[in-house]
Amino acid sequence: MKFELYHYIQPFVQKTDNKKLIAIPLAVLAVALLIIAFTTIQTGSPIALGMDFVGGTQFSVTTTLTEEQLQEMFSDYPLNDIRISGNRAILQFSQVSSEEYQELSNIIHSNSAFRDIEEQQVSPIFSEQLQKTALIAVVLSFIGMAVVVFILFRQVVPSLAVILSAASDIIIPIAFMDIFGIELTLGTVAALLMLIGYSVDSDILLTNKLLKRSGNMDDKIAGAMRTGLLMTTTTAAAFLVMFIVSTFAHYIIPGIPPIPLLSQISLIVLIGLLADILNTWFLNVGILRAYLTRPKSKSKKGGRRA
């Protein structure tokens, strides 16, 4: 059975020169950076921060009220988000004073329209600490990845190609998060960290075959691509199922609520895996092929005379 994606990509990669292969993913990366820069200028942050990182108050209630009725009821308070699934609603407020919090709590607990009430608060101090912890986790992941790559290959250009590909695999999904309005939470940070692992996996597979295996270069690229694309599409299929179930299953089976966190994680990973196909099999192949086929410098003639 033929692996169709491989048979579409492999001939294109083989017949396209290195500069064009490198230019395509770099153009996508440039657009992603522009989107992130625009978001930063507009909001002061490269990505919208969720309640985990800015603090806030969340109430989860059972109610028959509509979204419009809830918005009207809490119009005097900083209501950021309303999520309704069946008869369950989640109300998310930005930071409020202790007096405002007490008022909100009294309104919700004293109103017969609300049942099975659950509350969650994240303080600004705790959210600031989470921001630092998440940043440290991402930085350490990149440092660890870079160290392992340099130890494995001990060559600057191939190692930098892997690191550039991994960075692009993170930047492109962040740009899509800005477009779709997906906030940065502990769950979406986990999705971005997963992408570092997936990216390095395929890049190391390609780089190892080209640097450490003998044989025709096109054959080595084709062999690595066949294995790498199979791994990527298998992973993508699993996350696609997760996205469909967590996002749309409640339309078919009303008793199953949507799960926004799983929906966001799966969407981010899917976008990252698509970016990884571009970055590994276009960008990294182009860089490595140009590096390995570069003209060798001629050794100096002559030497000491006897």
UniProtKB/TrEMBL annotation:
It comes from the Archaea. It is found in: Cell membrane. Belongs to the SecD/SecF family. SecF subfamily. Part of the protein translocation apparatus. Forms a complex with SecD. The chain crosses the membrane at residues 21-41, 134-153, 160-180, 186-206, 227-253, 265-292. The keyword Phosphoprotein does not apply. Involved in protein export. One of its GO terms (biological process) is protein targeting. This is Protein-export membrane protein SecF. Keywords: Cell membrane, Membrane, Protein transport, Translocation, Transmembrane, Transmembrane helix, Transport. Gene3D superfamilies: Multidrug efflux transporter AcrB transmembrane domain. Residues 111-292 form the Protein export membrane protein SecD/SecF C-terminal domain. It is a multi-pass membrane protein. One of its GO terms (cellular component) is plasma membrane. Its main location: membrane. It comes from Methanimicrococcus blatticola.
